[in-house]
Amino acid sequence: MRKVSFILASMFLMTGVLSACGSSNDNNTSENTGKTNNAASSNTSTNTAANTGDNAAAEETPAAKVTISIYYPTPDLVEKRALEDDKIKRFTEKYPNVEIVKSEWQYNPNEIGIKMGANEAPTLFNTYATEGKFLAERGWAADITELFNNYEFKDQMNPILQNQFIIGDKVYGIAQQGYVTGTVVNKKMLTDKGVAVPSFDWTWDDMLNTAKAVAEPKKGISGIAPMGKGNEAGWNWTNFLFEAGGEIQTVDGGKVTAAFNSEAGLKALEFYHKLAWEASAIPKDFALGWGDAVGAFAQGRTAMVIAGPDGPVDQGLNQGGMKPEDILVYPMPAAEKGGKHTGVLGGDFLVINPNASKEEQEMAFNYATFDYFSDKGLESVEESIKQRKTDNKFFIPPVIQYYNDNSEYGQKVKAVYDKYDNVYQYSPEIMSLLDGKPEAQFNTQDYYAAMTNVVQEVFSKKDVDMKAELDAAAKNMQEKFYNTIKVE
């Protein structure tokens, strides 16, 4: 993916799958706003007229039966399942020839090859931002360029997200929602301990000092809970690599070269070492995945967590019983005063199975975009907000939507959000500071896994040789993965 750095001031609507990575986490934890019935009409549903005379009546030819399997939310996502069920009902009313099969398979880069080889992958499945080039190169994502170019609203799709699945001049995925990684802070924990709340334009030193001041190791309370297991650990740390001015890899002369074992990488790793050993601010049991770290935040066992903001906010408010005024969403801290608040840019996407027939692919595209830019989509979102209010729960939108926030449709959505006091509002000041940077172009998940091992070494060994660990991880990535890549 191309390197993109941007300021999200214009992207504020308020507001991401499950992640890590993602989600995603991701990170796939953001509230789903649904998808549109304004997609290109199906070629499988045609009307033909047979003339039997001057006043002959047109006869309708029944459309051919089409079956598609679609990504279906997991059982714990009750509200999202209700939204999806409503969408399926409306879709099949419009397309009665289509049968929808629900698939609970969650995208996994270690399983997708097996699923494709066994022809068991859904017709329409979810994935995350890092996977565009990976899926396209292996032939595991359908080329939907023609479908996308014929889509009525293609020019209103948010390019910051959609462009991540445009490889060369071909389209391989449909944007759903996205995020720029930030830091979510339990303000109440800080004020209860008399710890000053830092400004949103904060630095690494501010994060370190705040985490150290609020931590109570003997009581099992940490100042911050960096993720320490799974690929999430490498994903969390990469934010600091970017803030220090580093890169994951470089692409030059057709070759990919590991670049994270740089001065910037060492600086970012040294900061992690300070959090663990100088500030004693991380959990004693640091091996926390996304769910563990976000759960610790919701339960008041850590004051800060690094993630796509909507996930921790959702769990804090709707599972942890926290109040909106208790939660502050921060951008990632700048390495130094005046620096950029760079966070990993990620998102959730839908991909169509290339093994599906032309008719199945078309219907999968129609389903994916069924509620996009539509009044029905707005109604579905509003009903979800109302239901959450009835259940005494908050609605937490994604940080970045599939549409441009300043578009006509974006303003319609904002108007709906503004009607309800149970919709979580992100501060415009925070949004203006966010600086998103896409993940690596090649073997991102393998890189995250390699860095997870390094992070664990730093958190478990005070006298670890950090430069040696970085060099070893870079050497492993280079020999095992990057040397096999030829960039045209």
From TrEMBL:
<feature type="region of interest" description="Disordered">
    <location>
        <begin position="24"/>
        <end position="58"/>
    </location>
</feature>
<feature type="signal peptide">
    <location>
        <begin position="1"/>
        <end position="19"/>
    </location>
</feature>
<feature type="compositionally biased region" description="Low complexity">
    <location>
        <begin position="32"/>
        <end position="58"/>
    </location>
</feature>
<protein>
    <submittedName>
        <fullName>ABC transporter substrate-binding protein</fullName>
    </submittedName>
</protein>
<keyword id="KW-0732">Signal</keyword>
<dbReference type="InterPro" id="IPR050490">
    <property type="entry name" value="Bact_solute-bd_prot1"/>
</dbReference>
<dbReference type="Pfam" id="PF01547">
    <property type="entry name" value="SBP_bac_1"/>
</dbReference>
<dbReference type="InterPro" id="IPR006059">
    <property type="entry name" value="SBP"/>
</dbReference>
